[in-house]
Amino acid sequence: MKTTTPRKTATKRAASVATAPDLSFVIPAFNEEANIAETIRRVEAEAARLVPAHEILIIDDGSRDQTFEAARAMVREAPVRVIRLSRNFGKEQAIMAGLERACGGAVVILDADLQEPLSYLETMLEHRREGYEMVYAVRAHRTDEPVLKRVLTKWFYRMISIGAEVAIPPDARDFRLMDRRVVDALIALPERNRFMKGLYGWVGFRAKAIPIELERRQAGTSKFGFRGLLRLGITGLTSFTDWPLRVWTALGMGIAVLSILYGIWILVKTLIFGIDVPGWSTLAVAVFLLGGVQLISIGVLGEYLARVFTEVKGRPGFIVAEEVSGEGPAK
Ligand code: UDP
Ligand code: MG
C-alpha cells in the first residue's frame, strides 16, 4: 500500500513529461463493472480520432465488484492506467487521485456510466483552441430528475451563492476539459474537504460553459443516494460559505432587542394595571423556541468545527492501493 504525497506525484509527472500525452481522461468508477470496458473502448475510439496521443486513467474508488479487474483487462487494448483506491473515498477524492496522476497537457473528467455524450469533446477542444482554459458541461435541463431533487438542488445552489466570492454555476457537471494550468492549480489546493464544483470556479481561469443533453446511465444505478448528496451538500456549504456561522449574531440581537421592548411593555403594563396572572404558555413557547434556536446554532457551529477537525488531522484525502498500466505495475 502506498500513500501519496504531492512531491511524489510531481516527480512522477515530471519524469513522464517527455512523453506527455495531449489529453488525459480521468474517469472515477465505483461499482461500474458493467460499464467500464465499454466506456474505455468508446473513449479510446473518440480520443484516437481527436488527438495524436492520449491516456485514460480509471480510478477504481473502492469498488466491491469486478470494476478493477474489468479495467485492468483493457490495458493491452488502450493506453489505460488503473488506479485502485484502498476503499471508497467518494467521487471528489477519486477525481483528485486522477488529476494528480494525469500527465496530459489537458485533462478531461468523465463519468464511467457514459451519461455524458463523447460527441461534445470536439466542441470542448475547439473552445480550448480559442483560448479557453476550462470548458465545462452544463445540463440543459433537469426534467429527468424527481421534483424533490430538483427543488433541493435549487435551494442548495441558492444557499451556497449567498455572499459567495465566486459564482458556482448550478447545473455544471464534473464533465469538463481543463488546461494543465487549471489542473495544477486544483492540485495545489491543500484542503481535504473537497467540493469540486466550487473549486473549479474558485481557481478562476478563462472558462466556457457548453449546454449538454445527458443520456441515460448505460448500466447499473446511480451511486449517489440522498445521504451521499446531503453529505456532499454540507461539504459544499461549509467550504464555500460562512454566513451560516454569522446569522446567529443577527438573530440573537433581534431576539435581545425584542425581549427588552417586551420587558419595558410588561413593566409599563404592571405599573398601570397592576400584577396579573403570568402567561405560562407564552413562557413555555419562548423557552422551547430559544432552546431550539440555540441547538440549531450549536449544530451549525459543530458542522464547521468538524471540517476544521478533518483539515487539522491532515490525513490524506485518499490512499492508493495499487496502480497498473500497460507497462506493468507502477513502481
Ligand atoms: N463515483 C465514484 N465514487 C463514488 C460515487 C460515484 O467514483 O463514491 C463515480 C461513478 O462511478 C460515476 C460517477 O462517479 O462514474 C458519477 O456517479 P453516478 O453516475 O452514480 O452519479 P449520477 O450520474 O447519478 O449523478
Ligand atoms: Mg451517472
Short précis:
The chain is of the alpha/beta class. It has two domains: 6-241 and 317-329, Alpha-Beta Complex (Spore Coat Polysaccharide Biosynthesis Protein SpsA, Chain A); 243-313.
What is the topology?
Blueprint lengths: L5 H10 L7 E7 L6 H15 L3 E7 L6 H6 L7 E6 L5 H11 L4 E4 L10 H10 L4 E6 L7 H15 L10 E8 H9 L7 H8 L3 E6 L13 H15 L2 H31 L6 H34 L6 E6 L2 E2 L2
Parallel strand pairs: 1-2, 1-4, 2-3, 5-7
Antiparallel strand pairs: 3-8, 4-6, 5-6, 8-9
How would you describe what is shown here?
This protein is an alpha/beta fold. The chain has two domains: 6-241 and 317-329, Spore Coat Polysaccharide Biosynthesis Protein SpsA, Chain A; 243-313. Helices cover 50% and strands 16% of the residues. It has helices at 6-15, 36-50, 67-72, 91-101, 120-129, 147-161, 180-188, 196-203, 226-240, 243-273, 280-313; strands at 23-29, 54-60, 80-85, 106-109, 134-139, 172-179, 207-212, 320-325, 328-329. It has a nine-stranded mixed β-sheet, with helices on both faces. Strand 1, helix 2 and strand 2 form a beta-alpha-beta unit. The chain starts with 5 loop residues before the first helix and ends with a strand. The structure holds uridine-5'-diphosphate and magnesium ion (MG). Magnesium ion binds next to loops.
